[in-house]
Write a structure and sequence with these properties.
Residues 347-678 form the UvrD-like helicase C-terminal domain. This protein has 678 residues and is α/β, with parallel strands linked by helices. The strands form six sheets. The protein has a six-stranded parallel beta sheet with strand order 3-2-6-7-1-8, sandwiched between helices. The chain has a three-stranded antiparallel beta sheet with strand order 11-16-15. Strands 4-5 form a two-stranded parallel sheet. α4 (84-105) links the parallel β2 and β3. The chain is globular, with a radius of gyration of 34 Å. The N and C termini lie far apart (87 Å).
Length: 678
């Protein structure tokens, strides 16, 4: 029986090498670079790994090596990534490898527990919940969604009475700017007072210098001036969040960083809990995240950070590829290793990538040249890299489709066949990556024209289909009559097809209505707020009252009137309950075959609610659809027994549907009703 190396003997040196563990678990042997990382000393470690170099597998093997040699138990391992998908993949690989080790060694009691693999934000949330009271943060604070954040700030902006003379933006743009500024300040751990003081020093420094101010400097000063005007709104947003006992994602990370920075005992607790820490995509960590991790796991704790300076994609929120350069100094003199073997790309692709990254290496960046694996598959469709510069997007789509067809035919060795004639098992795996979603329809159409089956992935699902988008835009117009963008989509869509001339006339009508409203309103001598003319006018108002018909085309006027009436009818139903509400119905006597269409009266319900009855055929086992029930409903005389004092007014019930129809009696009904006096 092979015994697992205990923690007590870990100081004597590792018992298993990376190659021995791979052979024991029947895995591919690691490369020399991977073996050096897997068996590195239990100290701070920086791994610079290029795209497709097997960093996830290497991190999982590192955990396996540490556990097998007794340096840590599984529950003492912490792995942090940026996305839930990456966290799930890393956790799955680690659990799989540990499970294989348990089955091979036969010592389950020594491998009890599981490693903690989470995202940076979820780990920060746990720090706030467990230790937030040390800094005065309520652990029960709820996390605001993006929609809630926008609604809070939008309300503050529209009710703001402060000085906004240098801010020439619409309220919605101001709302976005306030949210962006608040998020940036949280990511950089900067308060409003600190930012205001820095801006004042910046203005004084620039204005004290002699000479003419360049245009770029004037623009920077103007932006700083606008930012100063937004700071009161940021303060109001912070006060409102405190009143609601809520926080957003930026606050979550900032609070965790401040708790870890200002309370060293938190770091001692976390270091005792996690003996080994793995940090994925470290080049994308923000300043607040670096402060959090450094405060918790600095001072030489075994932290292994993996990153690639060429893949830094979060610069817009404070991340910098220079974070990798500062890692050794911030975590106690970490050693550095590299992974340069790419398991994802062919030599031709890597040659292009290395040529494009040459300027980065010349500028001093830690960008190693990637090399292909020792064994690669045969090329498909000729050369692996093609480049084309075409005049139009249609030519580009056609070229991509022709290249795809050629690759299929060459791979199947059927030069004269059609794409649909290529056997499925001989079709190579193919993908087309685009920069913009607007490129997808043309490429998809070109591929389908040539008989190539296409599956579009990475979109929003049903929300991106035109029909569902129209429904969503209709709901937005009903909820927010000032949403002109959604209304324009509906007016110019396939249903109403309103032309440019009629749209211009509708816009002029909305301006006329706004001007008339301004003329009726009293004008103060010194208005505190000057409203935006675009916000005063609403296309929905003009649609409800389009004005004289000669301003439009005959067909356009008719369509606008029809759509205005339709929106008015829908608006009258906004206060009605959703059709998914369930009602339990009281059963009539067993001898009758009629069923009530209104729920049984409850104590305290208003009198005068009459009951409609629907005829049901006993013995029918078919589940009726909503249309069949609606068609089979008919009015029948009300029961003779009536509660005292109830009026004889009738009520009309509509739009109900049956949820289920058992063989004997329907029991549960669901519906949305509109009741109007008969």
């Amino acid at each position: 029986m092979i015994e697992l190396f205990s923690t007590a003997h870990a100081e004597a040196g590792p018992r298993y090498t990376p190659h021995e563990l791979a052979s024991m678990l029947r895995l591919h042997p690691p490369t020399p670079e991977q073996a050096a990382i897997i068996s590195a000393p239990v100290e701070p470690l920086l791994v610079v790994a290029g795209a497709g170099s097997g960093k996830t597998e290497t991190m999982a093997a590192r955990v396996l090596w540490l556990v097998a040699n007794g340096y840590a138990s599984p529950e003492q391992v912490l792995g942090l990534t940026f996305t839930r998908k990456a966290a799930g993949e890393l956790a799955h690989r680690v659990r799989t490898r540990l499970g294989q080790l348990v089955r091979r060694l036969g010592r389950e009691e020594l491998l009890a527990g599981e490693p903690t693999v989470a995202t940076y934000h979820s780990y920060a949330a746990r720090i706030v919940v467990e230790h937030g009271l040390r800094a005065g943060y309520e652990p029960s604070a709820r996390l605001l969604t993006e929609a809630s954040r926008w609604q809070i700030v939008d309300l503050l902006v529209r009710n703001y009475t402060g000085d906004m003379t240098d801010v020439h933006f619409a309220p919605s743009t101001v709302t976005d700017a306030v949210l962006a500024l608040a998020g940036d300040m949280a990511e950089h751990l900067v308060t409003t007072d600190e930012l205001a003081a820095w801006t004042g020093r910046f203005f004084a420094d620039v204005q004290s210098r002699p000479g003419k101010v360049a245009a770029a400097v004037r623009d920077a000063l103007a932006r700083q001036q606008v930012r100063l005007k937004l700071l009161p709104l940021v303060r109001a947003y912070e006060v409102r969040k405190n009143d609601y006992e809520a926080m957003d994602f930026g606050d979550q990370m900032a609070r965790a960083a401040r708790v870890a920075r200002d309370h060293p005992e938190v770091g001692a607790i976390e270091r005792e809990r996690f003996k080994v820490v793995l940090l994925d995509e470290y080049q994308d960590t923000s300043h607040a995240q670096v402060v959090l991790l450094r405060s918790l796991f600095g001072q030489g704790h075994p932290v292994a950070a993996v990153g690639d300076p060429c893949q830094s994609i979060y610069g817009w929120r404070g991340a910098s590829a220079g974070t990798l350069d500062r890692f050794p100094a911030e975590f106690g003199g970490a050693a550095e290793r590299t992974l340069t073997t790419s398991w994802r790309n062919r030599p031709e692709v890597l040659g292009v990538a290395n040529a494009l990254s040459t300027p980065l290496r010349a500028a001093g960046a830690r960008v190693a040249e990637l090399t292909a694996a020792a064994r690669v598959d045969a090329r498909i469709g000729g050369a692996a890299v093609h480049c084309a510069l075409l005049e139009t997007y249609a030519d580009e789509a056609a070229w991509i489709a022709d290249s795809m067809v050629k690759a299929w035919l060459v791979a199947a060795d059927l030069p004269d066949a059609l794409p649909e004639q290529v056997p499925i098992e001989q079709r190579p795996t193919s993908a087309v990556l685009v920069r913009l979603r607007s490129q997808i329809p043309a490429i998809e159409a070109a591929l389908r024209e040539r008989g190539v089956p296409v599956e579009v992935v990475g979109l929003g699902g049903l929300l991106d289909t035109p029909e569902v988008r129209d429904v969503v835009c209709t709901l937005r117009v009903l909820a927010d009559p000032t949403d002109g963008a959604s209304l324009l989509r509906l007016l110019t869509g396939a249903r109403w097809r309103i032309g440019p001339r009629d749209l211009v006339a509708l816009y002029r009508r909305s301006r006329a209505i706004a001007a008339a409203r301004r003329g009726l309103a009293p004008v103060p001598e010194e208005p505190e707020i000057v409203p935006d003319r675009l916000d005063e006018s609403s296309l929905v108002e003009a649609l409800a009252d389009p004005g004289p018909a000669p301003s439009y085309s005959a067909e356009g006027y008719a369509r606008l009137r029809a759509y205005g009436r339709e929106l008015a009818l829908l608006r009258h139903r906004l206060d009605q309950p959703c059709p998914t509400s369930s009602r339990t119905w009281s059963a009539p006597p067993a001898s009758t075959s009629r069923w009530p269409c209104a729920p049984a009266p409850t104590p305290g319900s208003p009198a005068g609610t009459s009951t409609r009855w629907v005829t049901w055929r006993p013995g029918s086992r078919a589940t009726p659809t909503a249309a069949r029930w609606a068609a089979s409903w008919r009015s029948s005389p009300r029961p003779k027994t009536r509660s005292a004092g109830s009026p004889r007014a009738k009520s009309t019930w509509s739009r109900a549907r049956c949820r289920s129809s058992p063989p004997t009696r329907p029991r549960a009904w669901s519906g949305m009703w509109s009741r109007s006096p008969a």
